[in-house]
Every structure is written in C-alpha cells, then in structure tokens.
Amino acid sequence: MRIAIYSDVHGNLEALEAVLKDIKREEVDKRFFLGDVVGYGPNPNECIELVKKNADVILAGNHDWAAVGLTDSAYFNPYAKESLFWTMENITDANKEYLRTLKPASTVDNIQLCHSTPVEPQEWRYILTMQDAMDNYDGLEKPVCFIGHSHQPVIIEFADGSNIVPIRDIYKTLEPNRKYIVNVGSVGQSRDSNPESCYVVYDTKTNNIEYRRVEYDVAKVQKKMEKHKLPHYLIERLGVGR
C-alpha cells in the first residue's frame, strides 16, 4: 500500500492545492494528515474543508487546538499569537466544532502517527536534537512513527535504544528490526531553507519512503496575508523557507 503523509498546512491554500495535485499523480491508496491545518496563513476555512475531503486520517496540531481553546497559547511567539487571534476570529463555528473532534495521535495498522512527539503528544514538544529523539524512544509503539510540528524533514533511525542516526536522504528504505521517527516536513510553511512544500510517500510493501517537494505560488499567498494584515515576518518567511 502506498500512503501519502502530509502535515502543517497552516492555512496556506495554494500550497495545499499544489500538494494534493502531486499526491493525485502519485496514485496513492491512503492519505494521512498529521495536524495544524490552521494558523499563520490566510485561508483556514478553505484548508479545513479541503483536508477533510483529502485525508483518510486527520490529526490535531497545537494550532488547531489553540484555535478552539483546547490548549494554552501562552508559549506561542508574538507572530504565532497574532495570527492565531486572526484565525479564531475568522474561522466558522462549524469548523471550530470539527477541530474540537480531532486528536493529536493515532495508530493505523503498523504505523504510529503523531503531530508532535510519540511521548505525551498533547504536550506539543519538539524533536529537534538527538537527545529529543532519545527521550521519545520509549514512546515508539510501532516500527515507524510519522510526525510533523517542527516543519523540518528528517528520518531518525534507531538501531537500538541508544544508537541513533539522523538521515536526510530523499529516498530511504526502512530496515527490519529497527525503529524510525519520520518528520514529513510542512506543506504550508517550510523551515529547512527550501520554500517548496514537503510531504512523504510511504510504500508499506517495499518499506520505501520518498520525500516529495512541490512548488506553489508563494507570492499569491503573501498578497493575501498582506491584505489581512498578518505579521510581516510570517509573510517574508514563506519566500525563504525558514
């Protein structure tokens, strides 16, 4: 089975539409979304509706829960807070109710899915260092766990509980008797110095993972963000991918 796994759309409709077109060309069997459909970007409602139609599993991210009061936004940086308040004012009541139904983690067959971390996913911690990865080893219930949240694509391979290797290859075949955390990157706000959208295709038969990068109309999104007076910092970062 071929599965497209994508995350962190953040209200970026143009990026989402481009990724979904690419997913369609890939002829996948399933589509999993790992959370943060809203926040930062100018089209929260449209993105919610589109993800609902184009995902077999949908998780909550911290921005999704914050938009409906299910998690504290006190730790958000000023730009994230400003865009969050705008999102809260502009999202429909029906979409708010929908976001309240989403959970931050799930398991599908032999695959673990989390927005943030396998250990205490509702705490919204990040995996940014090897120590962060080690701290989450005991939370790995399946051979592979797909995550988002940091917007930084990387595969972390655990040979055992104390021997880990970060992998940044475009293609990777997962080895038997090892465990993996796979960050799928971000559709709507890349942070790895590449402004293109990012997602993965996972083939459960061959155990192959492929990272896909997709161009979209960044300038169009930026103009919409300017129109809605969203923070200039958030507008600028889309063009540089960080």
Q: What's the arrangement of secondary structure elements?
A:
Elements: E1 2-6, H1 13-26, E2 30-33, H2 44-53, E3 57-58, H3 62-67, H4 78-90, H5 93-100, E4 105-108, E5 111-114, H6 130-135, E6 144-147, E7 154-158, E8 164-167, E9 171-173, E10 179-183, E11 197-203, E12 208-214, H7 218-227, H8 232-240
Parallel strand pairs: 1-2, 2-3, 5-6, 6-10
Antiparallel strand pairs: 1-11, 4-5, 7-8, 7-10, 9-12, 11-12
Q: What's the CATH topology name?
A: Purple Acid Phosphatase, chain A, domain 2
CATH level 4 superfamily: Metallo-dependent phosphatases
Q: Quick one: overall form?
A: globular
Helix-strand topology string: EHEHEHHHEEHEEEEEEEHH
What would you report as the Rg, rounded to the nearest angstrom? 17 Å
**Can you tell me the residue ranges where pLDDT is under 50 for at least 5 consecutive residues?**
none
Strand order of the largest sheet: 3-2-1-11-12-9
Count of alpha and pi helical runs: 8
Annotation, overall tally of beta strands: 12
Secondary structural class:
alpha/beta
At the first level of CATH, the class is Alpha Beta
Number of domains: 1
Strand content: 15-25%
Instruction: Based on the coordinates given, report the CATH architecture.
Output: 4-Layer Sandwich
Main sheet record: 6 strands, mixed
In whole angstroms, how far apart are the ends? 33 Å
Q: Mean pLDDT score, rounded?
A: 95
Helix content: 25-40%
